[in-house]
């Protein structure tokens, strides 16, 4: 049985190591959590809130508390505590990403197909970026619209331009066009969707969670890490899978089932993403840190004047 002193927010794995973070994200990006009803997620949140308040219901086991925290972390925003929309959750990256990426890799030959699937992908990415932003920095509907339009335009221009450019290139090169477009768009989509963090700074705290101010440099560091993670998440499936498919399509049995090439690619992308979603999220700590000496002069001087040399680093949620 769990005691009332059980610390439900204590990490189960060491977040300072990659393997510790990998175990953590394997846990909270579990795609099976997306099929649970909202009522079950709300029950998990209620149990987490009760535990935080020091009133664990009688008969509750530690395993039940760990599972409730898993559901809470997979479905509720770490800053606001609000339930996130289903499609935007990182736990939806496997089912959502495998369908869209698989179809992008299958339908890459014609411009209309490229335009449609890149638009679908960037719409999906925009929703994921907005859902997993640092919620302490609000963004207006107009800014969301500009971010969405800019990222989608970048992806379409890159994909269509490269698609036309590679008409005479080796077939494998053309198969890699979707990845280049996705990587380019991620470099635009994430910063644009989270532009308020760059413009106004992101909330930073000391080791104990006491707010120290807002930092634009911290925002840039966090967003850069997210961009790297997103590109890493997509890279293996979108680079290796085209090689696999090109070789498989030479076999006669594959030539007889061309109508199954799309579903096969979707399933293979899913196999990559089951591992790559948690692995990419684990590249950098969720609770990002930054030396006070690297902050903006005004914020750095403010911290030093209040705390002297007692505060060496600031901490912030980099988002996902």
From TrEMBL:
Residue ranges spanning the membrane: these are: 227-245, 266-285
Q: Could you tell me the superkingdom of the organism this chain comes from?
A: Eukaryota
A Gene Ontology molecular function term of the record: monoatomic ion transmembrane transporter activity
This protein's membrane topology, according to the annotation, is: Multi-pass membrane protein
Please report a single Pfam family linked to this protein. Answer: SFXNs
Q: Which GO terms describe its cellular component?
A: mitochondrial inner membrane
One of the GO BP terms on file: serine import into mitochondrion
Xref: InterPro entries:
Mtc
Indicate where this protein resides in the cell.
Mitochondrion membrane
Q: Which UniProt keywords apply?
A: Amino-acid transport, Membrane, Mitochondrion, Transmembrane, Transmembrane helix, Transport
What's the family? Answer: Belongs to the sideroflexin family.
**What is the protein's name according to its record?**
Sidoreflexin
Instruction: Give the originating organism.
Output: Pogonophryne albipinna
């Amino acid at each position: 049985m769990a005691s009332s002193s059980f610390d439900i927010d204590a990490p189960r794995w060491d977040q300072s190591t990659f393997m510790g973070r990998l175990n953590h994200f394997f846990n909270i990006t579990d795609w099976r959590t997306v099929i649970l009803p909202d009522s079950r997620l709300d029950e998990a949140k209620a149990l987490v809130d009760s535990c935080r308040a020091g009133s664990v219901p009688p008969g509750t086991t530690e395993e039940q508390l760990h599972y409730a925290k898993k559901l809470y972390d997979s479905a509720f925003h770490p800053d606001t505590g609000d339930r996130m929309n289903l499609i935007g959750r990182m736990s939806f990256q496997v089912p959502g990403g495998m369908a869209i990426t698989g179809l992008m890799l299958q339908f890459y030959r014609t411009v209309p197909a490229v335009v449609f699937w890149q638009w679908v992908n960037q719409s999906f990415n925009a929703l994921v970026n907005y859902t997993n932003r640092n919620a302490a920095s609000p963004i207006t509907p107009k800014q969301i619209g500009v971010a969405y339009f800019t990222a989608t335009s970048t992806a379409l221009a890159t994909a269509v331009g490269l698609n036309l450019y590679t008409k005479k290139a080796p077939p494998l090169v053309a198969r890699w066009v979707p990845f280049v477009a996705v990587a380019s768009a991620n470099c635009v989509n994430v910063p644009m969707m989270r532009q308020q963090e760059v413009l106004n700074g992101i909330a930073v705290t000391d080791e104990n969670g006491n707010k120290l101010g807002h930092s634009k440099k911290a925002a840039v560091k966090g967003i850069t890490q997210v961009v790297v993670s997103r590109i890493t998440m997509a890279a293996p499936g979108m680079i290796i899978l085209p090689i696999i498919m090109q070789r498989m399509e030479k076999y006669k049995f594959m030539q007889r089932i061309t109508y199954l090439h799309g579903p096969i690619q979707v399933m293979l992308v899913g196999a990559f993403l089951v591992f790559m979603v948690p692995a990419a999220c684990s590249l950098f700590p969720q609770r990002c840190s930054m030396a006070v000496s690297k902050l903006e002069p005004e914020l750095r001087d403010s911290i030093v004047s209040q705390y002297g040399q007692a505060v060496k680093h600031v901490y912030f949620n980099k988002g996902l």
